Amino acid sequence: MKRRILIDCDPGIDDALAILMALAAPELDVVGVTTVGGNVGVDATTRNALALATLAGRRVPVARGADTALVVDKKRAESVHGADGLGGVPLPAPAYAAEEAPAWEFIRDRAAEFRGELEIVAIGPLTNVALALSAYPETRERIKAIHLMGGSIGFGNATPAAEFNIVADPHAAAAVFQSGVPITMFGLDVTNRANLSAEGLEELRAVGGRALSPCCSMLDHYLAAYRSFGRDALALHDPLVVAWLIDPSLVETRPYRVDVETDGRYTSGKTIVDVHGVSKRPPNAEVGVELDAERFIALLTRLLRSYDEPGAAGPLGTD
Ligand code: RIB
Ligand code: CA
């Protein structure tokens, strides 16, 4: 049976590839997309999610969520993803509108509809997920699992200590890790190694196609940002979560206790991963520790190329 997933995201260039991969995967039933402010504001992330579904030829319900965090001031990553969130790469105009219901109600309703089956793929700040779990406590036991890109065992990327998705809303992240819902955490320890070099990007561009071509244009912008930070390869953070859903052998995970710092002057947003069990507290997450980067890129390529296979649906509004 297909895995029922709901993607909560802040597209965002790496989110864009993750969404297109998920919509292409026969193993996954994407029952909805919810959007959150993160890389860029929620107006842009919602428009981008609708445009990506239109490009994919899939009328997936999209529900708009929170623009800012529960408590902390707004954080954005336009320096990495561009002002529009997709590196200025034009996509088809959205062929349909977002849902009336806000993201947290949409999450509540899908968890009820697919009780015990729904898996949330959270690849942005966790504000919407935290709001759904706190406003509708019955949702906690209805969600099968939350698979999130966020945090790290080691260093951060938004601050020396903290990864962007977590530090953008540390209170929401703390609530999610304390919720009791089974969690799989894909932190920078593995996602920074899910990377693509300039040569690898040229190999993707040579494959081409109606999904891969705009994706490679977005990745040009993304690689330029990484180079400005002194990095010569880009990290495909969010796509790794989707790839693992399809092929769990791609990432080795270990059970650890994970807590989120919300008050530290230098450490707010840090995921505290108890790798040696010194807290004596039971694990609350499976945390990614190793990956097969080569097979990850091969799976990404196969999925994004599938949009050009015979019989694949065209963009919405062109049939
Ligand atoms: O730190 C990487 C994460 O922050 C990714 O989800 C990226 O899209 C940004 O949201
Ligand atoms: Ca993201």
Strand order across the biggest sheet? Answer: 3-2-1-4-5-6-11-9-10
The counted number of beta strands is 11
Query: For the terminal residues, how far apart are their CA atoms?
Result: 29 Å
Instruction: Write the CATH homologous superfamily.
Output: Ribonucleoside hydrolase-like
Tell me the strand percentage band: 15-25%
In round numbers, the mean pLDDT is 97
Uncertain runs are none
* Largest sheet descriptor: 9 strands, mixed
Number of helices: 13
CA radius of gyration: 18 Å
How is the topology of this model organized?
Blueprint lengths: L2 E7 L3 H12 L3 E8 L6 H15 L5 E3 L13 H4 L21 H11 L5 E4 L4 H9 L3 H4 L2 E5 L14 H4 L2 H8 L5 E4 L1 H4 L3 E3 H10 L4 H17 L4 E3 L1 H10 L4 E10 L10 E4 L10 E7 L1 H13 L14
Parallel strand pairs: 1-2, 1-4, 2-3, 4-5, 5-6, 6-11
Antiparallel strand pairs: 7-8, 9-10, 9-11
Helix pairs in contact: 1-2, 1-11, 1-12, 4-5, 5-8, 10-11
The structure holds alpha-D-ribofuranose and calcium ion.
Structural write-up:
This protein is α/β, with parallel strands linked by helices and 319 residues long. It has one domain: Ribonucleoside hydrolase-like (Inosine-uridine Nucleoside N-ribohydrolase, Chain A). It is built from 13 helices and eleven strands. The strands form two sheets. A nine-stranded mixed sheet has the order 3-2-1-4-5-6-11-9-10, sandwiched between helices. Helix 1 packs parallel to helix 12, helix 4 packs across helix 5 and helix 5 packs across helix 8. The longest helix is centred in the last third of the chain and has 17 residues. The chain is globular, with a radius of gyration of 18 Å. The relative contact order is 0.17. It binds alpha-D-ribofuranose (RIB) and calcium ion. Calcium ion (CA) binds next to helix 1.
